[in-house]
Amino acid sequence: MAPSNVAFLCLLGGGAAASVAPRAARPVAVGSAYPARELCSRCGLCDTPFIGHVAQACAFLGDGMARIDAAEALAHGRARRLDEEDELYFGVHTELSGVRMREPLAGAAWTGVVSAIAIEALESGLVDAVIAVGARAEDGPARMEPRPQLCRTAAQIRACAGVKPVLANSLELLDAVRADASIRSLLFVGVGCQVQALRAVEAHLGLDALYVLGTNCADNVRSSGALRRFMSAVSTSPDTAIGFEFMQDYAVHVKHVPGPADTAAQGVPHAPADSARAALYERVPVFSLPQSGLKDVIADSCTSCFDYSNALADLVVGYMAAPLRHGERMTESTQYVVVRNARGAALLDGIRPRARFTALSSNGDRRPFVPGIVEQDLEGLLGDSPPQLWAMPRWLGTLLARLLSRLGPSGVEFAKSSIDYHLLRNLVRVRVTEGEVRAAAAIPAHARAVEAAYGTLADELVARYRALRAARPELSRRPPPMRREAE
């Protein structure tokens, strides 16, 4: 039986985990390449002795994310129902609904749903500690750069509020968890590739209970340097930016904190604020992003990923399926939650009295929009077109974004369009760059189902880019591997 299955059976059997000996090995040395090389997502597993499990745990080695197919049933008690569209897209679930906190949490990217769940789990005694992602600095652009934290107080969790859009090595803290006898129950907050690795080693942590709070994830920035390049290309005031997100209105919402100088004077337009020190927002239509400044920003692991929905988490918080009113700030907007099992329900129940829940809506038809977006993105990933130096003026990009917001998919249908786009793009990329044998082993069933729904689109794109690479061998040159950096 594979080690990952042993881990799940220990969890579901209720407490045998402490008797399982870990397969320890020497962590990757500073400066050395990670086992998954350029596909590494820097989840942190290989920064610990748990690297001994990497062949079975890593989402980008061997069978990769195809392990999700069997792992879902072990984690949640049943497999995903691929013939039910909501389960096909969002994974195993017992509840899918909109949510926002009645009293928003200061410093949160949205209203603080994730932070509130973590704080309640800790303060109620459900867990002894929380692994979350803090920031390298309290102010300025470094606030978006990740520093994983093992939180033992509500104040430490609050300090982790806000999205960090860069690869984070959160699993490096597992060694500290295993060494601390006072931690009998743990809440892990993380993204799909981290959660898959965590599930593979959870039996070796010596815990009585593990709760996993996941977030949706797509297209993380590969490094702090890439983040700075991205912000310089996107924002008119990169030095005051403290967060951003690609939102449902076809715009990047860049969050700024005004400094001594007037941020609006630096080009942040019409940004409402609750007070002199409240966050300002800059909205940049995606059609106005200069492609020359976006090259090599997204991690290769993210363009090889098939787990946007975070299939193995107990509870998932995201935003793509939620409504977004025109002009609404992220700190005012609704998110959505996916409850997968009893552990997820227990986490969410802790905040129900302080949260507002709503039914999700779905409008429009995603299918006419997806192929064009996939083709455009693949040209940047696999093609030979030079980077686009010119982008739409913001006023024109804003008009187009508003038009698509009215005519295009919205709500749950918008989320499904985003999932379709990412799955199809990544499936084609893996088939072209890794080959059909590797793709057949590593692509999960739900991604194959989405591929089939679009007929011959993926096959045609694979054939196009294989032919291009045969004629232009230099396009097949592999990027350098991810290496462990000094802290």
From TrEMBL:
Show where the Coenzyme F420 hydrogenase/dehydrogenase beta subunit N-terminal domain sits: 100-174
Q: Name one GO molecular function term.
A: oxidoreductase activity, acting on CH or CH2 groups, with an iron-sulfur protein as acceptor
In which domain of life is the source organism classified? Answer: Eukaryota
Q: Tell me which residues make up the Coenzyme F420 hydrogenase/dehydrogenase beta subunit C-terminal domain.
A: 184-356
Q: Tell me which positions the record assigns to the signal sequence.
A: 1-17
Keyword set for this entry?
Signal
InterPro entries attached here?
Co_F420_Hydgase/DH_bsu_N (IPR007516), FRHB/FDHB/HCAR-like (IPR045220), FrhB_FdhB_C (IPR007525)
Put simply, this protein is called Coenzyme F420 hydrogenase
Q: Which residues form a coiled coil?
A: none
